[in-house]
Amino acid sequence: MGRIKTIIGKIKKFIHSMRFGIFAVILILGSIPMTVLEHSMHAYYRSAMINNTQAQLQVQAVALAGEIGKYQDKTFTSTGSYEAVIRQYSTFSDSRILLVNYGYVIAYDSYAFESGKTIVSENVIKAFTTKKTISAYNKAAGSIEIMTPVLDDNKNAYAVVVMSTDVSEALNYTDDVLQKIYIIKVSAITMLIIIAFIISGILVRPIGNVTHQVNDIAMGHYDRRIRKGAYSELSDMTSGFNDILDKMNNLDESRQEFVSNVSHELKTPITSMKVLADSLNTQEDVPVELYREFMADIVEEIDRESKIIDDLLSLVKMDKSSMTLNISSVNINELLELILKRLKPIAQKKNIELLFESFRPVVAEIDEVKFTIAISNLVENAIKYNRDNGWVHVSLNADHRYFYVRVEDNGIGIPQESQKMVFERFYRVDKARSRQTGGTGLGLSIVRNAVLMHHGAIRLHSEEDVGTTFTVRIPLNYVPE
Predict the structure, then answer these.
(1) Containing domain of residue 295, as a range?
(2) Does one domain contain both 308 and 328?
(3) Which residues of 328-353 are buried (b: 16+ CB within 10 A; e: fewer)?
(4) Helices (H), 318-357
(5) Average pLDDT over residues 27-44
(6) Residue 10 burial (CB < 10 Å; 0-12/13-18/19+)?
(7) pLDDT at 230 over 70
(8) What is the pTM of this model?
(9) What does the CA dihedral 351, 395, 457, 308 come to, rounded to 10 degrees?
């Protein structure tokens, strides 16, 4: 029972595979022309055989009518005059011949079955009236009939020659031939099935190779990469997958480094505070000045640790998948002026000129808190990673759909190789400088998350020793997903 289920499972898997799809397409595209050709040949041969037989009988019927007309015996009472001719034509053409007079009486029957009987036939009447040869194929009886008028010297019809022949045997012979063609078609389709199965296997083999490599990676070999496939689409897919693996490895390395850094950063202030506190506890009669100095150092270490914790909390709150926005209509001009006012003391410490330029009044639907955090991070980074006596330029503009915030500085810039990574969590361009400035590598990740939550976009342009420009684009009207 288990083996049967396994076989059924494999069959289902094959049916839902790309190989089966390719196999089915090849089989259908190959079988349809064969089937159409078979039916076309069947119809063509039957039609050609019937038409040829009709043409031959018609020629013979016309000739026979001409022979009978020579006798000018309109009453057909002179025996032996036309009977011999009719029998001769009947034998030669292997057909039954009736001679019908003007009263629609069968004057002669080559089979001697219906002589003297009256015949009422639409085609016989038509041959009398039109004085033309009439041909008909009786599909049910499998016979062909030719009705030809016998004309006198005045071109008047006084009799009709009816020739009929059975074509069922000939059609059966044609069916036998077509039966052989059908056998050939079945053999060809069988070969096509084999060829389609082989070709489909060859076509999907590169995909199978990629799948095997993916499974190896899924088993834990994350250092491996997928080789490019034989098809351009497969190569594009493998390149994208390899890029994802590279980003995952970089992210994992960044996380490990971040855990190490944060552990160190969190431990260092605590250690410092413990040393300072122990020093105060072990000394007697500590001077007030020393006590104040130690307490100031302890406060500084607490602020340092608080900054790390705040960044971590901000990152969690900016998680797009689990955070909702408190959307309201906000005057962006006034909000940017307020942000720059708060950050101005930090800029003054490095004698950095902080400029704001607004091209038009802008009111947009945003989450004021999260937008403020994002812009504050950008401006604060522009100040921290700038030169003394430098400048930071913040500008605001808008069109009919979006508003744009541009934060530009003339600071140290970001290396080209790091520009793709700066928005990743825990990534820091210069680890030593970031530690000195209190950076944790979370600021730009927080900015990106805040922008994405507003359905916006952020773009970076930077040159080392020239400066950096961040451009944020956010819709004026927020539309929930």
Answers:
(1) 232-315
(2) no
(3) eebebbebbeebbeebeeebeeeebe
(4) 332-349
(5) 78
(6) exposed
(7) no
(8) 0.46
(9) 30
